[in-house]
Amino acid sequence: RDIRAALDAMDCGCRALRNNRLALAERCFTRALALHPRWHDALQRRALVRHERLNLRGAIADYRKALQSCPECHWCWSYLADVHRDAGNHRGAKECLDAALLLASRKEQSPQLQEDCAQYRLDRGRTRLALGQPRQALPDFEERVYEHALNNLLWHRAGAEVRRARRLVALMAGPKMGF
């Protein structure tokens, strides 16, 4: 009986989320979690809704609970990084992206996972730029390990950030002496 009610609440939340009815979605996921407090999928979806509704503390708490039940979920680490970044905690975002990349790199490489890893690297490069670490950001922008991602638009979109990181690294190195 509890399982049926939790599944109904989860289904209600997913429908509400698809229709961008965020308040209803959050209530439905909360109802599912009242019946099954450690349900990873419900925690992850409620965290997503809370992030969208700018309840960053609630989103962080839910992602942390979701990661307690499934610490190998690289998506949760990535989404938690997004919340940290939106909260202005770039160091926390970088740590989460490091975890996401480590976990994803351990899995069998499918095209989707390659694209996820490319996105995590791009996000980590952006985060390192925000932390004032252009030298460390460059390898994330220039990584060519994931062949599938080379033709992906997200690498083309990163062009301005790569140029910015290169300029900052060059400025840090000082003027070049031409002989």
Outline the structure in words:
It is a single chain. The protein is mainly alpha-helical and 179 residues long. The protein is 78% helix and 0% strand. The chain has helices at residues 2-18, 22-35, 40-52, 56-69, 74-86, 90-105, 111-130, 134-142, 147-150, 153-157, 159-173. The protein is elongated. Residues 145-151 and 175-179 have low confidence and may be disordered.
Key terms for this structure?
179 residues; 11 helices; mainly alpha
State Rg.
19 Å
Rounded to the nearest angstrom, the distance between the terminal CA atoms is 81 Å
- Helix proportion: over 70%
Coarse morphology: elongated
**In what range is the share of β-strand residues?**
under 5%
Q: Describe the largest sheet.
A: none
Mean pLDDT, nearest integer? 84
Would you tell me the structural class of the helices and strands? mainly alpha
Number of strands: 0
Low-confidence stretches: 145-151, 175-179
Series of H and E elements: HHHHHHHHHHH
Number of distinct helices:
11
